[in-house]
Design goal:
- The chain is of the alpha/beta class.
- The chain has a single domain, classed as NAD(P)-binding Rossmann-like Domain (Rossmann fold, 3-Layer(aba) Sandwich).
- It is about 45% helix and about 15% strand.
- The protein contains nine helices and seven strands; from the N terminus they run βαβαβαβαβααβαααβ.
- The chain has a seven-stranded parallel β-sheet with strand order 3-2-1-4-5-6-7, sandwiched between helices.
- The longest helix is centred in the middle third of the chain and has 23 residues.
- It is globular and about 50 Å long.
- It holds the Pfam family adh_short_C2.
- Belongs to the short-chain dehydrogenases/reductases (SDR) family.
- This is 3-oxoacyl-[acyl-carrier-protein] reductase FabG.
């Protein structure tokens, strides 16, 4: 029997990159997956098609998790479609680096609204349906360890997410709901390509400091998330697993 057979998972921001890899990994392990997207319907549909072509179950659901009504609608759609909810992966996030002199209110609010408020709203909606054995996994970042220059706002959101993970692990433990985080290091995705990070001097420097000597791939992160979603991680809560190839 597959590790997640009979379980239902919602993955926010799953139309590409790490989120897409997570959705596919959970489906391979037997979960029915709701592939959330904010704007990239084509990307989400492609993820669903890949999952169903491999014999899995998945649907795409649009929703901006930084809006309370849409976050609730996403979770309700999962329950209506599959009858239950067992796993929430809070992966939706944006990164936009700026030197402190360039930080604006708009920059701050956009990143905090999606990276922090979105996690709170999606978790709030999901907590009504999660029960004994439920698992929430927050996608943080190793940037909170390495303190990359010009990432002050983005790093702030991930630091907040780490603290939120610990608080919710304690708060939801009486209901036997586990809450953990995964902190990826530098990962090669569509986003890091678009941002010009891949192939840059910064990327070269990060890889040079990475003991395993390469950039991460989305599947490197997805496998860790699939483990935390499963009963193999039943004794883990409040943990933050750094998946970075050894960089600290």
């Amino acid at each position: 029997m597959s590790k997640l057979e009979g379980k239902v998972a919602v993955v926010t921001g799953a139309s590409k990159g790490i989120g897409a890899a997570i959705a596919k990994a959970l489906a391979r392990d037997g979960a029915a997956v709701v592939v959330n997207y904010a704007s990239s319907k084509a990307g989400a549909d492609a993820v669903v098609e890949a999952i169903t072509a491999a014999g899995g179950k998945a649907v795409a659901v649009q929703g901006d998790v930084s809006k309370a009504a849409q976050a609730r609608g996403l979770i309700e759609a999962a329950v209506e479609q599959f009858g239950r909810l067992d796993v929430l992966v809070n992966n939706s996030g944006v990164y936009d680096f700026a030197a402190i002199e360039e930080v604006t209110e708009e920059h701050y609010r956009r990143i905090f609204d999606i990276n922090v408020l979105g996690v709170l709203l999606a978790t709030q909606a999901a907590a009504r349906h999660l029960g004994d054995g439920g698992s929430i996994i927050n996608i943080s970042s190793a940037v909170t360890h390495v303190h990359t220059p010009t990432s002050v706002v983005y790093t702030g959101t991930k630091g907040a997410l780490n603290a939120i993970t610990g608080v919710l692990a304690n708060e939801l433990a009486p209901r036997k709901i586990r809450v953990n985080a995964v902190s990826p290091g530098f990962v090669e995705t569509e986003g890091t390509h678009t941002a010009g990070v891949v192939g840059s001097e910064m990327a070269t420097g990060i890889i040079a400091q990475t003991p395993l000597g390469r950039a991460g791939q989305p599947d490197d992160i997805a496998g860790v998330v699939a483990f935390l979603a499963s009963d193999d991680a039943r004794w883990l809560t409040g943990e933050n697993i750094t998946a970075s190839g050894g960089i600290r």
